[in-house]
Specification:
By secondary structure, this protein is of the alpha/beta class. 44% of the residues lie in helices and 16% in strands. It has a five-stranded parallel β-sheet with strand order 3-2-1-4-5, with helices on both faces. The radius of gyration is 20 Å and the shape is globular. The structure holds NADP nicotinamide-adenine-dinucleotide phosphate. This is NAD-P-binding protein.
């Protein structure tokens, strides 16, 4: 019997990271370790990970040093899924992983296909991808489309994922006919467990997706499931350009979110077809690699979400 690979997950108390940790645990194929920042060691989520057999190592991605190399000793695969403030700090983590003899590094991507020069956040993530290639560390880059959990806004504004979620959902760009790829967060870990155990994905970009749909189709699902009419607003190409320019001038989270919206609904970057193009990174299609995985649909998610008190 071959020895199980050891995988350390950064961000295992967060949304993507928890899905990844769960996927790895449920696969029974790995020794799963969670890198938890010292300040978070007593969180209930950490107790839950421990109760599922996950080893905890205390590491803060923002303060990587020689002790981090020790924390990574014996680790075969590093998976990074921390928040947007920690993207550039991954460079030191990549160095530590290389020193510790890690075989494969999955940096913090987990978003939507794009090309450089459109979204600053994508470009920042690209700097880390370039660095991993430059120093010759094994890698897999993974994107997932838009989460089902982020596209459908709550009925209650106090439960919004981000402040403009309800307003943004009702905006129609380009007639609402631009295709986008979507994935339920819960499926990310199921796919990730297969991807990192697969020699075909080493040193490749992989695209996970559950379904493709237009804004009109997503709104249609929400209307049918909720039994309401959603009032939409058409945004002209000129208004879209103005929104983008204003957000770029404001910077920060506003820029991240507006550049996403522009990439999704105006440019149409987030499609399966684009992800596979060389200029988008030439992705391997996770659905073609693992046809036995049956991802959750937008309609299934909408029923489970709006069926509760949201
Ligand atoms: N595709 C989509 O629709 C979509 C949507 C949202 C996000 N994303 C992407 O998914 C990725 C992860 O985002 P998320 O929203 O899933 O994350 P999240 O839920 O915000 O969780 C962040 C995680 O990072 C950990 N963390 C923060 N700072 C840290 C540090 N200095 N050292 C170690 N751990 C630290 C947090 O741990 P603590 O417990 O210590 O706080 C938490 O586990 C990002 O790349 C983001 O762009 C994609």
């Amino acid at each position: 019997m071959t020895q199980k690979q050891t995988v350390i997950v950064f961000g295992a108390t967060g949304r993507t990271g928890a899905s990844v940790a769960n996927g790895l645990i449920d696969s029974h194929k790995f020794n799963v370790v969670a890198a938890i920042r010292p300040a978070s060691k007593d969180k209930p989520e950490v107790e839950k990970l421990k109760s599922r057999g996950v080893e905890i190592r205390l590491v803060d991605i923002s303060t990587v040093d020689d002790s981090t190399v020790d924390a990574l000793r014996g680790v075969d695969i590093v998976i990074s899924a921390t928040d947007h403030s920690t993207i550039s700090a991954q460079k030191q983590l990549v160095d530590a992983a290389k020193k510790a003899g890690v075989k494969r590094f999955i940096p913090n991507d987990w978003a939507t296909p794009c090309i450089r020069g459109v979204r600053q956040y994508y470009d920042d993530k690209g700097v880390i991808q370039d660095y991993i290639r430059e120093i010759g560390l094994g890698y897999t880059f993974i994107d997932v489309g838009i989460w089902h959990q982020i596209i459908f806004p709550p009925a209650d504004p106090t439960k919004q994922f981000f402040p403009t979620q309800i307003e943004g959902f009702a905006k129609i760009y380009r007639g609402g006919e631009v295709q986008n790829a979507f994935t339920d967060i819960r499926d990310i870990g199921t796919f990730a467990a297969r991807i990192i155990d697969d020699p075909r994905t080493l040193n490749h970009y992989v695209f996970i997706w559950g379904e493709e749909a237009t804004k009109r189709q997503v709104i249609d699902i929400a209307e049918k499931v909720r039994g309401i009419k959603i009032e939409t607003t058409n945004v002209s190409p000129e208004e879209a350009e103005k929104e983008l320019a204003n957000a770029r001038a404001a910077g920060s989270f506003s820029q991240i979110m507006t550049e996403y919206e522009y990439s999704f609904w105006v440019r149409g970057d987030n499609t399966i077809e684009n992800a596979k193009k060389p200029e988008y990174g030439g992705a391997l299609d996770a659905r073609e690699l693992y046809p036995d995985i049956k991802p959750l649909t937008l309609t299934e998610y909408a029923h489970s979400y709006y069926g509760t008190s949201n």
